[in-house]
Amino acid sequence: MKNKNEQEKWKSEELREQRKERKARMTTKDGQKKAIRKKTNLLAIVAVLVVIAVLCGLFFLFRINNGYFEKTKVAAKVNGEDITAAELNFYAGTQLFSMMRMQAFTPSGQRILARPMPAFNQQINGEYNDKSVRNIILDQLKEDLPKLKFMQAQAKADGLELNEQQKQGLDNYIAQIKASAAQYQMTPNELLAAIFGKGSDEAQVRRYIGDLFLSQLYEQTKVKDSEVSEEDLKAAYEENKDEFESVSYRMFVLNQASAEPEEEPEETTETADAESTAEDRSTAGTDNTAAESTPEAETQKADESAGSSENSTKPTDKVEIDEENRSITIEKAYDPKAKAKEIKDREDLDKKTSDILEKITDEASFNEAIRDYLSDAEKEVYKDEKATLVSSAYKSTLQPELAQWLFDPARKEGDKTAITSSGKATILYFINRQLDETPTYTTRHILIRVGMEDGKSIQHSDREAAKTKAENILKEYRDGEQTEEAFAALAEKYSDDGGSKLNGGLYENTPRGRFVKSYEEWALDPARKAGDVDLVYEENASYSGYHIIYFKSLGDPIWKQAAKLKVGQDQFTKWLDSQSDKLSYEAVEDGMRYVLPFDKAAAKEAEESLAAAKESSADEKPEPSATEENQAEASSAAESAETTAGK
Q: What's the CA gap between 296 and 182, in Å, rounded?
């Protein structure tokens, strides 16, 4: 106990000594308390401030690069609703990409935006003037966006919602964007930003596209519900006969001699047509867009071409590669041998064409006249007399050259011609022009595909398996409620037709010639009645499979449906125009700075060039060459578009 008390005493004395020492340090010689000194580390404060400034700068840059201002700045008030710069950029980017395949928010796109393009403005507004591409699009948005937002608001007020097919279409578009981005080693958001503007992402684009689909659904619903009289239909027909009448004709495409061995040969009818059905042949004269190539692929081809010509006497093409704009220009070299071969091939094609036309005396002689000019593969195809027949073709589906000849008012049965273009001759024999009164039909179907070996011969076991599966599905239907709803449920469950599966296998108002022969003959059988269900089989070069078909009804002929749609569309347009008091558009200057940003240096250059041109020729329009230059760069930007989305 004593030791413990002594230890405590020692501790207390020790603490007293420590307090005395501290007090002595804080007291001056005359006993006054010393002033407290503040230790400040100026360098530490400066360092902290610098770090804060850097972080603020990085945060600011992050917000800029991620479209913060585009997403938050109001760029326009449309029908009283605030529209951000990001939403305006979406609509502008959509229009530019669909019309010009142009990525407006890339460096090359921003240069094009700054330039005048009179031909483009004439296409949009019917005016040939010096407006820049950016101003052309902004003017178009000012006119169209109020109507679009009005329809979206009306659709939501009416409780309209996207159907399953539209939702699937939206999913497919996003999937296509992702696939294209992966192909070109970009992230999906980078590709979306190139097309629709800074800060674009999947959620935002989904929302905007969903609104677009909703406005389209509203318009379709209003047009479909329009009241159209027989008098309206007759008047529409008389005014637009070319739209509603169709033509039937025979057609054969004859190609000239193949290209030189060292050049990449184009696909010929020997390979393409041999794999076509008679139905496929009917689309040979339709207007299709050629596939686009990438700048990287073109550059590689140019490099290979240049390399292969180093040890050759063949003249070398002049190749210019613009890496900044990711474009390539190839100026073909003059080659006397190639030119001579081109002339010979053209003369040979003309002679063959003339021989064929001379042999054609009537429709029955058409197939015989072409027989000597068929390849072995084509001879198999043209064993079918209908392989050259195109029935009930509408003007809107044909290439312009074919449509112009076939729909000429002077055209009569037995007329024949050959339209030569791009190294091939399209030989035509006119049969008739008619107003097709064949009714359309509405059906549901379940497709069970049959497996194919090498894309040609059908595997018997697969066909038997497919037939068994189709028969079991048909039995399941017949053992059940046997209603349209029950059939639709089976279609969603079993059908191999992705185009109709989500809609219960429904195809409405199908015109003659749209579906395969066995399907069409069953549907258009005069004895057919609502609720009929049966199984048919189809085998051709495109596919093989079993169709379980549910017949719903017959409808108006296709021309009447087209006329009704046109009249309904005209009525809807007039009604929408009458709502002008509810439509408004007011640009907000502060936010418009972030809409369709353009290259100011390119704008200044274009302005100076235009001023110089006007000075040299005050009374003349801008020279066509300037327009062609702009169009060429727009085309170049389109070819470098890193997506196939849009189509």
A: 15
Q: 203-239: string of b/e by CB count within 10 Å (b at 16+)? A: ebbeebbebbbbbbbbbeebbeebebeeebbeebbee
pLDDT of residue 574: 94
**C-alpha distances out from residue 134 to 64, 128, 138, 588, Å:** 22, 15, 6, 16
DSSP per residue, 577-602: HTTGGG--EEE-HHHHTTSS---HHH
For 544, what's the count of Cα atoms within 13 Å in the CB-facing half-sphere? 19
Query: pTM value?
Result: 0.63
Tell how strand 74-78 and strand 585-587 pair up. antiparallel
Q: What Å distances lie between residue 197 and 71, 189, 193, 563, 594, CA to CA? A: 10, 10, 4, 40, 9
pLDDT in tens, 551-592: 999 999 988 988 999 999 999 999 999 999 999 999 999 999
Give the pairing of strands 416-421 and 389-394.
unpaired
Q: Three-class SS of residue 528? A: coil
Phi, psi (degrees; rounded to nearest 5) at 622: -55, 140
Q: 131 vs 108, 405, 593, CA distance in Å?
A: 18, 37, 18
Are 599 and 257 in contact, with CB atoms under 8 Å apart? no
Quickly count: other Cβ atoms within 10 Å of residue 151's Cβ: 23
CB burial of residue 346 (10 Å; 0-12, 13-18, 19+): middle
Asked if residues 353 and 427 have their Cβ atoms less than 8 Å apart, the reply is yes
3-state secondary structure of 143: helix
